[in-house]
Amino acid sequence: MKTRLSLLLAALLLAGCAAVAQRPVLYPNAKFKQVGDAEAQKDIAECQESARRSGASEGAGNAGRGAVQGAAVGAAASAVGSLIRGRNVVQDAAAGAAVGGAAGGVSGAFSSGEGSTVFKNFVTRCLRDKGYDVIGWN
């Protein structure tokens, strides 16, 4: 029982770590030099919040979607394997869901490393309107 709980917690931790959002990188133009890094970071946060309020999502949901898909596939595959081997279907399905969820979350995060195009475009435009020059996202 403790092993299964540890697997589930590890899966959730990995999926959470995989969902780290990207941030815009600003070119140190005249506006950036005028206000400084601290004020520029506040403006970035403001533009990101404005994008969220407008309905744009950061794309981190792709990691969550991958985790759910991975959990479903892992649970189904483990349950079938348990039936074939005559083992405890519920326990094996839970373990498969934990492993599949972790793998799916990490895979979803890596495959969606670009983040939401709409969110990025919104934030980039907002920052441009404030006088900043976004040169990319990290």
Give an account of the 3D structure:
The structure is a single chain. With 138 residues, the protein is mainly alpha-helical. It has one domain. Helix content is 74%, strand content 7%. It has five helices and two strands, in the order H-E-H-H-H-H-E. The chain has helices spanning 2-18, 30-53, 61-85, 89-111, 117-129; strands spanning 24-27, 133-137. It has a two-stranded antiparallel ribbon. Helix 3 runs antiparallel to helix 4. The radius of gyration is 20 Å and the shape is rod-shaped. It starts with a helix and ends with a strand. The mean pLDDT is 79.
Nearest-angstrom radius of gyration? 20 Å
Domain module count = 1
Task: Please give the share of residues in helix.
Answer: over 70%
* Relative strand content: 5-15%
Distance N to C terminus: 40 Å
Query: Could you give the order of strands across the largest sheet?
Result: 1-2
- What's the total number of strands? 2
Overall geometry comes to rod-shaped
Characterize the biggest β-sheet. 2 strands, antiparallel
Oligomer class: single chain
Give the SSE string: HEHHHHE
Structural class: mainly alpha
Number of helices: 5
Low-confidence spans = none
Overall mean confidence score, pLDDT? 79
List descriptors.
single chain, about 140 residues, mainly alpha, two-stranded antiparallel ribbon, 5 helices, about 5% strand, rod-shaped
Task: Chart the SSEs and their pairings.
Elements: H1 2-18, E1 24-27, H2 30-53, H3 61-85, H4 89-111, H5 117-129, E2 133-137
Antiparallel strand pairs: 1-2
Helix pairs in contact: 1-4, 2-5, 3-4
